[in-house]
Amino acid sequence: MSRLLHVADGPYAPPVPAHELTATAADGARIHVEVHGPEHAPAVVLAHGWCCSTAFWAAQIRALAADHRVIAYDQRGHGRSPANPAYGTEPLADDLEAVLEATLAPGERAVIAGHSMGGMTLMAAATRPAVREHAAAALLCSTGSARLVASATVVPMRAGRVRTWLTRRILGSRAPLGPVTPLARRILKYGTMGPGSNPLMVDACARIVHACPSRVRHGWSQVLDLLDLDHGLRELRMPVEVVVGTADRLTPPVHARELAAALPDCVGLTELPGLGHMTPVEAPDLVTGKIRALAATYIPSARGERAVLAEEGA
Fold first, then answer.
1. Where would I find the AB hydrolase-1 domain in this sequence (predicted)?
2. What are phi and psi for residue 135, nearest 5 degrees?
3. pLDDT in tens, 98-152
4. Which helix (H) or strand (E) holds 128?
5. Environment class of 223 (CB within 10 Å of its CB; exposed 0-12, middle 13-18, buried 19+)
6. What separation in angstroms does the CA of 129 have from each of 92, 107, 132?
7. Among 9, 17, 121, 234, which has the highest number of CB atoms less than 10 A from its own CB?
8. DSSP 94
9. What pLDDT sits at residue 306?
């Protein structure tokens, strides 16, 4: 019955950041930002999804911070970023741009990884100057650019008008989620995770999702319902890798295939058998490895910086 915002120990407990700061978006929204790892190491920026927080990336932060500077932020209204009346894809783009400008030096390049709404954030910001300046490469996990509600398979029935109507009512519910109970874990696992997800993974995700305020959850559900970012997708000109679980009920693999086909420079599409929507939690080593490989390939300083850090630790 705990209302902890995240698990307190184990592999999915968020590590303590090296420092924290507040980025201010164009409309004045205050965005909570955490920075982990060595100050001058190659940079990675992590953007979480709907109803999540920086805690969602705990496994990636813990692994990458050994030799990367990992920047994670809470989307507006999520985690420690205050709620804001502005909902929409442009505010998401504003927030990412503010984070990049607040944390990266002029001309500094980073790998940007976005999960679900975090991937949509990157698509929304594709033409922003800060993204064009700072994005060396990107990873899109379990996301889509449009037609989300009609394609979701949360409701186990044939696609069509009735399923879309029911899905819209479920995802757009204003009802509070309440405490994390065994039933709540089962429901969350069914909707967002693969059948083989272990209890630690399920509990970690349940605590994060249940911590999201119901008004914030509802507000962003309306944005996702009307989402159309196909134009932004085609503007992602950096190398982009795509990852999806084959059992994803929220953004099924059809979205990942459409992303891969439309991206100007798709460098890989990975479909993970039996995994659900929460791929960074369900397949932490694989997702971390994808981010690490993108940094090594597309950030010029990455390979040399890792060698220096290894020598210093010897």
1. 44-287
2. -85, 110
3. 999 999 999 999 999 999 999 999 999 999 999 999 999 999 999 999 999 999 9
4. none
5. middle
6. 15, 11, 5
7. 121
8. H
9. 45
CA 231 remoteness from chain centre: 20
DSSP H or E stretch at residue 154: none
**pLDDT score, position 298:** 97
Q: Which residue has the tokens 């399920």?
A: 202
Between CA 7 and CA 61 the distance in angstroms is 15
Q: Is the model's pLDDT at 3 over the cut of 70?
A: no
Average pLDDT over every residue of 184-196: 96
Q: 189-217 b/e with 16+ CB inside 10 Å = b?
A: bebbbbeebeeebbbbbbbbbbbbeeebb
Which residue, among 125, 111, 12, has the nearest Cα to 75 in the 3D structure? 125
Cα distance between residue 258 and residue 37, in whole Å:
35
Question: Which H, E and C letters describe 25-78, residue by residue?
Answer: CCCCCEEEEEEECCCCCCEEEEECCCCCCHHHHHHHHHHHCCCCEEEEECCCCC
Cα(21)–Cα(117) distance, integer angstroms: 22
Cβ contacts of 57 within 8 Å, gap of 6 or more: 14, 46, 48, 72, 115, 280
